[in-house]
Design goal:
The structure is a single chain. By secondary structure, this protein is of the alpha/beta class. The chain folds into two domains: 5-128, Thiol Ester Dehydrase, Chain A (Roll), CATH 3.10.129.10; 138-400, 3-Layer(aba) Sandwich (Rossmann fold). It is 38% helix and 24% strand. It has helices at residues 23-40, 46-50, 125-129, 173-178, 204-217, 230-242, 261-290, 293-298, 300-311, 315-326, 332-335, 356-365, 381-384, 386-400; strands at residues 5-9, 53-63, 72-82, 86-95, 101-112, 138-143, 146-153, 158-162, 183-187, 223-228, 246-252, 343-348, 370-374. It has an eight-stranded mixed beta sheet, with helices on both faces. Helix 6 links the parallel strand 10 (223-228) and strand 11. Helix 5 (204-217) crosses helix 6 (230-242) and helix 7 (261-290) crosses helix 10 (315-326). The longest helix is centred in the last third of the chain and has 30 residues, at 261-290. The chain is globular and about 75 Å long. The model has no long low-confidence stretch (mean pLDDT 93). The protein binds D-malate. Residues 164-165, 229-230, 325, 353 line the site of D-malate.
Amino acid sequence: MAPAEIDLTVYPDECDAYGHLNQASFVALFERARWEMLARGPGMDFFTRQGAWPAVRKSTVEYHAPAFPGDILRFAQVLVHLGRTSFTLRQTARRLRDDSLLATAELVFVCVDAQGRPIPVPEALPQVMADKPLPGNLRRVAVNGVNLAVDVRGQGPAVLFIHGYPLDHSIWDYPMAHLEGWMRIAPDLRGMGQSDAPDLGYSMATYADDLLALLNTLGVERAVLCGLSMGGYVAFEMLRRARERVRGLVLMDTRSEADTADLRRARDASAAQAREGGSAAIAAAMLPKMLAAGVAADNPALVDRVRRMMEATPVAGILGAITALRDRPDSTPLLSALGDIPTLVVVGEEDQITPRQGAQQMADAIPGSRLAVVPAAGHLTPMERPEAATALLAEFLTSLGRPG
Ligand code: MLT
């Protein structure tokens, strides 16, 4: 299947004397987007294999707003009409930064054979064009060779929310909905949620590179990082790679140390469990440790939601994350050097996976940081106590002020 969306960058050589993307170049970008969708889906040679070449009979382009060098344009396409020998595609181009609609193209194609005679549209075409739409507010962003599913809301300085293992962006639903005045970005890490799950190539470095590339694509220079558990480990890796891009740091239900030898052995056992019993086995093993006792008893809907989220994680993503977790470096030596980055440490009072004592040690080691303990929460504070977690985040973000 072809991907639903393709992102292309506008370059200066495509622009006219006024600095606008020239209309002929815009038409070429629409064409490039169609080829990219074939290339990343059924293959660029899809029509050749079918022996049917789509010849353009009519094309109409409407321009709504100008594009400028450096803009990243998001192209989407839908099959709006399917005839016997012809089909019609509608394409849209939106600017990624503000989601404004810049241009719409409609093309009527007639399928012809090698002699130029009309022949039936390949049967496989509708299926190839109909990629599964992502649920809710999610959009696909291609970075680092994978498509990440990302929830992006609001305008303003950026906050990047990084989820833990084996979870997805939706653990941040409440702060994403409530932190007005900030550009909130919550991706599914590769291998989790709705993002692609390649078989190999997982490490904290890869997750961090994915997210730095995501910030580039979204046009975000600096962001506040808010990582939960494994998301905190990814945030540490981002700091090691590009600390100048980090405006502030929230370490939630996480720790700085690498795995001990015992924990590394437990990771290997967990990988074996995933291979044998799939995601369900991992979910069953982890669920009892995820939530505070009172939450688990009083909120069966939340328990069910967390279980389903873990069960939906592809086994390739689980195995990849286990490798990344097991082999991650010790981030403790980094802590004393974080004095120039405003930091808030948050922990659920009943967190069994990354307990309060470790959070206290991190806060003690990071100059100027503060620890907030959230009562009656376990390892998933933003889901268990969403209002309390979001109030802490809002207070912290407000304390950072607007970038100068
Ligand atoms: C997580 O919640 O991200 C993981 O449980 C972290 C870990 O296992 O170290």
